[in-house]
Amino acid sequence: MSQRIVRVNELVKREISMILRSRFRGEAIYYTIVDVDVSRDLRHASVYYSVLGDEAQKKEGVQFFAKNASLIRRDLGRNIVIKYLPFLKFKEDTSLKRGDKINRLIDDLDCETPPFSKKDI
């Protein structure tokens, strides 16, 4: 990935977070922008967010971002100047949930003998 795309990703992530904090204060307190992945041609961006709360909050998050994606994009266009303003596609970030599941599986392993001994080295 080029250095320019990395900088654009971080810029878009920071600006969307600021838009959520300033414009949608009460509604967006449960959402955190985790990562942004802008395409090489700057026309599309996947915005990954995490939700603090239960399943009901996650459903509200999907509805919130579906309803407000165009407003967020419009405000983003006012705050940053790049050649093309990307279309935003919001996706829930499930990497924390997957990582937690993997950690639990590792903890549940019953391993009484070490995987190797000093003789093996």
Entry summary:
This protein is 50% helix and 18% strand. With 121 residues, it is α+β, with helices and mostly antiparallel strands.
Question: What does this 3D model show about the protein?
Answer:
The longest helix has 25 residues, at 55-79. The protein has one domain: 2-Layer Sandwich (GMP Synthetase, Chain A, domain 3). The protein is α+β, with helices and mostly antiparallel strands and 121 residues long. 50% of the residues lie in helices and 18% in strands. The protein has helices at 3-23, 55-79, 95-108, and strands spanning 31-38, 44-51, 87-92. Strand 1 and strand 2 (44-51) form a beta hairpin. The chain has 3 helices and 3 strands; from the N terminus they run H-E-E-H-E-H. Helix 1 (3-23) crosses helix 2 (55-79). A 3-stranded mixed beta sheet has the order 1-2-3, with helices on one face.
Write the layout of secondary structure elements.
Layout: H1 3-23, E1 31-38, E2 44-51, H2 55-79, E3 87-92, H3 95-108
Parallel strand pairs: 2-3
Antiparallel strand pairs: 1-2
